[in-house]
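Title: Comparing notes on inverse folding

I've been comparing how different people in this forum approach sequence design from structure. To keep things fair, I'm posting one structure and asking everyone to reply with a full sequence. Here's the target:
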């Protein structure tokens, strides 16, 4: 397979995850800001210097995988922070991606409220079992109509979940099931 070079304009570090279809490399570029001064001064860790910008859109980059005349598709959609992708596949002019992340309105509000603590919030209570400041990570499906440049988002499972996967046999194809780690939201924040 040929090497494909691409630059993500405005990105100060690589996206957290990548997903493939037969035709595209797909990157989600969440709306993040970096204040590197506290890190350079040794006052904060790198993740504490990254904040979520709730006023900006997320950018989706669909980069052709093969040598072709096809151009890279760059689309903007409402702000979100997809974390881990389960699967992606293409049917006609539509690409479907199933992902987990901080995508719900509630999660995005929580990211905004804890912005002063960095993208991962405060880690102080985690060692004691208090996960109340960790934004809810849900499962979503993005359907991208590349011909009409329309992005649709649909929540598939609302709970605290992460690391979704599909069986490798269904990689780059539609799958009936995905598997993920889940936690009990009722116990969230309890010590």
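Reply #1:
Here's my take.
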């Amino acid at each position: 397979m040929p090497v494909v070079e691409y630059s993500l304009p405005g990105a100060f570090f690589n996206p957290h995850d990548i997903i493939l279809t037969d035709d595209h490399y797909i990157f989600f570029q969440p709306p993040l800001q970096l204040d590197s001064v506290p890190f350079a001064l040794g006052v904060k860790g790198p993740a504490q210097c990254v904040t979520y910008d709730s006023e900006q859109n997320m950018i989706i980059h669909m980069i052709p995988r093969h040598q072709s005349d096809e151009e890279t598709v760059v689309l903007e959609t409402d702000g979100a922070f997809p974390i881990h992708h389960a699967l992606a596949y293409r049917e006609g002019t539509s690409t479907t991606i199933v992902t987990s992340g901080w995508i719900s309105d509630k999660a995005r509000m929580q990211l905004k409220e804890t912005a002063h603590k960095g993208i991962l919030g405060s880690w102080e209570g985690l060692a004691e079992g208090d996960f109340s400041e960790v934004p809810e990570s849900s499962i979503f499906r993005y359907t991208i109509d590349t011909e009409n440049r329309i992005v649709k988002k649909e929540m598939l499972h609302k709970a605290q979940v992460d690391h979704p996967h599909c069986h490798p046999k269904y990689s780059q194809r539609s799958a009936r099931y995905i598997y993920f780690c889940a936690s009990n939201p009722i116990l969230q924040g309890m010590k």
